[in-house]
Amino acid sequence: MEGTTSSQRRKSLTKPTSTHSAASSTTSTLPSAQKILGRRIKLKTASNEEIEGRIYALDRLTNCIALECSTDNAAQQGRKQLSFRIIKISHVKEVLSNQEDAPTDFLPINYVDTNRLDARESSGVKNMRQRVAKMGVGVTKEAQDIFDALSKTLPCRWSNDTIVVLDEVLIQPPYDVDSCKANSSSASSLARVKKVLEGERRRLERKQ
């Protein structure tokens, strides 16, 4: 190229290969997932960290490799304790060693039912919301203890600092029997709540 010295051309030819280029080379040399799952492998990352483990999964979509690594105290304790490292293949600088044959006792990843995972997530979120709904905001520990005790036998919810029981009876601070209020049509529910509240307060006082 005109205006380029021979010294500049030599420098451009001797520039080190980028990490991305090295990783691309590593990716191209990796065989199919079926052939490498279960093999032990030792890698050097772009940050020069050496990681050794068994190949647990290879995801071409995210371009990641998952290694199953034994913890240092696993052998000492005589039980199997495993940790996993997920590494971007683009972060792999070099494959230091690679077991040729996968062990016969390696169990591949089973099918994951995403519908069951979604159901578990929905159930967990629902349970957490129910737990949060039972936590009073800005109330005393005594008030929360009374709420928790009542909610074991009666449906309760918070309305600011007031405990609402059976959606009919209101228990306002200081949360004693005289603090219970209800409409005349809910006289039976009021009597029931007062009886339960009186018993729970006595029980809580004995625990103190």
TrEMBL record:
Comp. bias (Low complexity): 14-31
Highest taxon of the lineage: Eukaryota
InterPro entries per record: AD, Lsm12-like, LSM12_ABD
Region of interest called Disordered, as start-end residue ranges on this chain: 1-31
Pfam family name, one: AD
Every AD domain range: 110-205
Protein name stated in the entry: AD domain-containing protein
Organism of provenance: Lichtheimia ramosa
